[in-house]
Structures are given as structure tokens and as C-alpha cells.
Amino acid sequence: MKQDGEKVRDLTKGYPAKVILMFAIPLMLGNIFQQLYNMADSKIVSTFVGTGALAAVGATSVVSNTLIGFINGLTQGLSILIANSFGAKDEKRMRQYVAGTMILTAGVTVLLTGFGLTFIEPVLRLLKTPNDILGDAAAYVRIIIAGIVFTAIYNMCANILRAVGDSKTPLYCLLLAVTANIVLDLLFVAVFGWGICGAAYATIIAQAMAGILCVAYALIKFKNLIPRGDEWVLTREQYRELITTGLSMGLMGCIVNIGTIVLQSAINGLGTKIVAAHTAGRRVFDILMIIIFTIGFSMTTFVSQNVGAGKISRIKQGVRHALVIVSVETTVLIVICFLFGESVVRWITNTPDREIIDAAVMYIRVGVVFFYVLGPLFILRCSLQGMGRKIIPVCSSILEMLVKVLSANFLVPAFAYFGVALTEPISWIVMTTLLAIAYLAKPPEKMFGEKDRF
Predict the structure, then answer these.
(1) What is the DSSP string of 361-427?
(2) String of b and e for 319-339 (b: at least 16 CB within 10 Å)?
(3) 3-state secondary structure of 449
């Protein structure tokens, strides 16, 4: 691909650890800024509307995250085939997969939006959302779901660009959107007094900006990605590949979130204070997890491109390097978390209530220690996906869902919020064990041959 070659990173060349890090850093920064916005959003809501409004946002996030997570997983899965074609230097096939990605993303987004708007209130009641925040929660999440089309546009375009090695452009678009989001949040919530709905409107407007900017840039600078003529017509086999690959990753996130929904129901049953604590704790936890997750996400593109290029021995080398990287990151994050976690929670919640603060801090500290397990989980799962192995990652997600369902029914009733904090570490141990067995039993050289094809 000749357009803006300096922005396109060919992950089939160079020292794997360096290549993976350089690709991951823009992705990492984008996600961190997104989570920092979420923290700022929580701060603005708790300061100008109240702790109840913060709890309302937290009580609904698992629902909107399930829908958004499915779309992001779908588009990430679809991009695997684009990355594979890019690595193989087959531009026509690459553009055909781009066309299929656009068609499938549009169809799924329409279905999810209609489903979400129709069933959101019964779902919130099923989740045992406290009555004192149910009205705000329903109003907030309806707006978010109505604007999910903009999230789909951004995720689709961002994942297409990442598939061909450009992880910087999605970052720049997201930075502009996050900045606008915070400004709009202050304007709608603090100045106009629109309450929790103002925060929702700010979110979808900013997401629309990110999507439009990303698409515009791709149309101008990456014309070789744009399907032409009969490239919009895909074979049945190509659609089968797109659907199985995309749905496997979309369903993986969705399956996990089904377990999270059940767990959120148990959390909601612990009262508004614990819901607020979990919302604050999760905001911090998500930022910490991004540092680990983005290395895994980068492995999807790294492995996909190298499979397409036939560089099989390089895949195993990249996996080893990535495992070292996430182990070092985990050590640093544990230190940061134990030193500054409580201060950040106090800032987000804007409350002196020790029950809220202590619960949030406990949740963060318990989870971050187990990042030594979470890091390999992300690396192995994303690498297997990049190798075209769809079943094992989905099975690992089913295990995570089952652990969360069992926790909601047994751990949480027995240990209250401490049971919630233990849930994810237990699921990580189970999943990582399964993925490690699958990877070691059938490593890249057994799948694709002992020697590189090129």
C-alpha cells in the first residue's frame, strides 16, 4: 500500500518486541484517554448531579458495553482477514474483505440498536437496578444505545486501519473526540443542567466526531482500501469466512458480558453505595487493564499479518516477547495501584464515605495482583484468533461467563462485594489454563508447517 506509507506498519518485519510495542503504544494511548474521559465523566456526574447519578451510569454500563463490545469484537474479527490479506500483499482480496466488513457491520448495528431500545427497561429491572436510580438509568442508556451507530462506524474504520498497520490515525481521531466529550460534558451537565442525559448526549456526539474523522481520513489517504466495482460482490466462501471470524469474536465479548450482566445484577442487589463504589473502582481498573489488553490486541494483527506472509517461526517468537512485555507491565501497575489507587477513587467519587472508598480500593487491589495471569490470557487468546483458531477463544469466554454466573449465585451471597472482587481472577486462571493447553498442544509450526513459506 503506497499511500502514507510512513503511517502503515508492516508487522512482518523487524524485531518482534519492538514492532509489537510500537504498534501497541498508539492503541494503548487511545484507550487510556478514552478511560480517562470515562473517569472525568464520572467525576462531572458525581459532582454536579450526585452519587445516585454516578450509580445510575454504573448500573447501565454493563448493558451498553455488551452491545458495544459485540460490535467492537465483530469488527476486530473481520479485520483479521483484512490483515491476513495485507500480509499476503493481495490488495484485491483485502478490498473485498473491507466491503464485506462494511456490509456486515451495518446490518448488525441496525439489529442491535432495535433490540436494545426495545428491551432496555425490562433488562434493567431484571438486573435489579435500585428503584431510586431506575429512571435515570433508563434515560441514560436509551440515548447511548440510540447513538451506537456512531460507535460502530468508528470501531469499524479504526479496526480496518489497524489491520494494515495504522494504529496512529484512530488515536488522533479519538483524542479529538475525547477532548470534545469533556467540553460537552461540562457544557451540558454543569452549565445547561441537563443532568445524566447531558452526559449521554455528550458521549454520542463525541463518538460521532471520532467516526466521521476516521472515515474521512481513510477515504482521503488510504484509497487502496476502498472497494471498487465488482469487489463489492463477495463469494459465498468469503462471506462464510467473514461471518465465522467476526461472529466468533463478537460472540466472545457478548458471552463474557452476559456473565457480567448476571454479576451486575448481584452487585445491584448490594445497594446504591456498592454500585457507586464498583463504578468508581471499575473506572480505575479499566485503565490499568488497557495497558495489558492492548499488547494482546496487537498480537491479533501481528499474528494475522505474519500468517498471511507465511512467516510462521516469527509468530512463536512474537508470543514469547509479548509475554515478557505484559509481565513487566504488571509489576509496574501493581506498584502504581497500591500507591495511588485510593487517591484516584476519592477524586472520582467526590465523597468522604468510607464504605464506598474502601470497597472500590479493595476491588482494584485484588484484581491487579492477578494481572500476571490476565496478561498471558490476552496474549494467547488474541494470538489464537490471529492464527484462525475460533473455537478455543470462544470456549474460554464461555468459561468466564460460567464463573461469573456461579459467583453471582454463590460467592457474592457468601462474601458480599469481596466475592465480586474474587470473581474475575478466578475466571482468568481457568481461561489462561485452557488457552495455554490449546496453544502448546498445537503451536504455529504444527498448524502451518515447520518452515516459513517465504
Answers:
(1) HHHHHHHHHTHHHHHHHHHHHHHHHHTT--HHHHHHHHHHHHHHHHIIIIIHHHHTHHHHHHHHHHH
(2) bebbbebbeebbeebbeebee
(3) coil
Nearest to 198 by CA among 135, 134, 138, 140: 140
How far apart, in whole angstroms, are the C-alpha atoms of residue 303 and residue 301? 6
Distance CA 7, CA 236 (A): 33
Distance, in Å, from the CA atom of 175 to the CA atom of 80, rounded to the nearest integer, reads: 25
Q: Record the pTM.
A: 0.76
Which sequence spans correspond to the domains of the chain?
5-446
**Cα separations in angstroms, 119 against 115, 124, 197, 303, 454:** 6, 9, 19, 39, 52
Residues 6+ apart with CB under 8 A from 367: 285, 421, 424, 425
Residues 6+ apart with CB under 8 A from 15: none
pLDDT digits (tens, 9 = 90+) for 42-95: 778 777 887 777 777 777 777 787 888 888 888 988 888 898 898 888 899 999
Cα 362-344-257 angle, rounded to 5 deg: 60
C-alpha cell at 314: 516469527
pLDDT digits (tens, 9 = 90+) for 9-39: 678 888 999 999 988 888 888 777 776 666 6
Question: In the chain, which stretches have pLDDT less than 70?
Answer: 1-9, 35-40, 253, 256-257, 449-454
Burial class (CB in 10 A: 0-12, 13-18, 19+), 263: buried
Residue closest to 200 by CA, chosen among 192, 191, 189: 189
Among 301, 310, 303, CA closest to 450: 310
